[in-house]
Amino acid sequence: MAAAKKAVLGPLVGAVDQGTSSTRFLVFNSKTAELLSHHQVEIKQEFPREGWVEQDPKEILHSVYECIEKTCEKLGQLNIDISNIKAIGVSNQRETTVVWDKLTGEPLYNAVAAPVSPGPSDPAAVVPSGSSVPAAGPSSVWLDLRTQSTVESLSKRIPGNNNFVKSKTGLPLSTYFSAVKLRWLLDNVRKVQKAVEEDRALFGTVDSWLIWSLTGGASGGVHCTDVTNASRTMLFNIHSLEWDKELCEFFEIPMKILPNVRSSSEIYGLMKAGALEGVPISGCLGDQSAALVGQMCFHDGQAKNTYGTGCFLLCNTGRKCVFSEHGLLTTVAYKLGRDKPVYYALEGSVAIAGAVIRWLRDNLGIIKTSEEIEKLAKEVGTSYGCYFVPAFSGLYAPYWEPSARGIICGLTQFTNKCHIAFAALEAVCFQTREILDAMNRDCGIPLSHLQVDGGMTNNKILMQLQADILYIPVVKPSMPETTALGAAMAAGAAEGVGVWSLEPEDLSAVTMERFEPQINAEESEIRYSTWKKAVMKSMGWVTTQSSESGDPSIFCSLPLGFFIVSSMVMLIGARYRSGMP
Predict the structure, then answer these.
(1) What is the average pLDDT score of the chain?
(2) Other beta carbons less than 10 A from residue 221's beta carbon
């Protein structure tokens, strides 16, 4: 026992990894980057209307406390002293929007979130501006589509020759980012409006909500965010690294409700409750930036792809902003210290990756567990010409096409659930290829290999398919928890903590698994071009004028209903007069 305890002595660092479907707390040895213990809690998503996705901020917060407590219990069982935990980092789902009351600590609405799969319609969930809404307190999740009309209205106010929103933020005007979700809350939720008027409201992405709550909440909690999360709001100037007055005026967002922007690695405050009371929170990165750090992509041209609910491919562009001409985003990669330089990245996002597996499980029922998809795909080894475009919420990079919807095409009488499972995995890989192609064109230097991480990378068929479709090697670290690792590295390296060195010579060597392409280049190109054809078929399915969640009855149109009823009466009458049976 003593020997085991001695083997893990030394400074430890914890990391909160708060995602769209779960919360985790992980503890690493700062000298070896070894993962010692962790705990995970699933998070519910609410679908009050089709295209709407929400989460309860209080449930998110409670899940963090639960994960910390359970992980500390597990460490105790391993004879590891939790007093060795010297710092905590936070990594979080980005763009998800929370507004809360700074006097009571209560959320004023749910976090506006990501529609991984559509849920039941509930007309009571939204009301006209100025009306009352249910008292619940969710947050707005990153893929929520309710703000499409807001985006279209705002886009008309941007001069065609001066897209100041994109030039200042690196982002296209889209439902994806926090500013329009916040605008929707201010327009539609009376509780939020009233709290702003009375100077009680605070806004933040999930990191801000967690850090404020964990450092004391209504009793002196620290209201802050880091540059990576701020850069995803569409209110932050990525050149000056400040909230932008012109952008806030454009979106009509009061600047007094915004958090203070800090670097990704500094002490923000101390834990005020729980097993780790008194431990500094000293690292904060949006999940994709955290994975970039965890993959140690510290040099220009290094890129990683994270396979989670969605797919996120980031390429480090160094200390210069590279603006994409091919539908990618320019974003802040990290700033690892108050006095350290800021680094930028190009990013492409696939909205639906792991979420398509969940959809096959929960909506179609063709698998009972997410792991079963690998077995089904292995049975056939091909999609047999079946292509699946999972554009459930539109297409994101490089298309940014909200009118698209999911399709499965190329079906024959021979197609079965195994082929659809294989096509679903291929869809993740094809979408990644589209982003990588755009990134190569913007950077001018084709990637020689792709570093990967995230839960889906455990699927060996997926990783081999990815290597085949990209036609470059795919490299996976043996320790896949790179998002949490990145947050832990930022926390441990913070000034005043100093237990984790980020100097190249001190970084632990990571064992890698490598997947080489196993098909010829011509076959790879044929499959990819067919996929592109399927993507084109998915576009233009919906407009803001058509109601996807409205009454499907033909009688919702009175003239049409009258015409059909009168035609039926005339037909019956004619049959009766002619003596037809």
Answers:
(1) 85
(2) 21
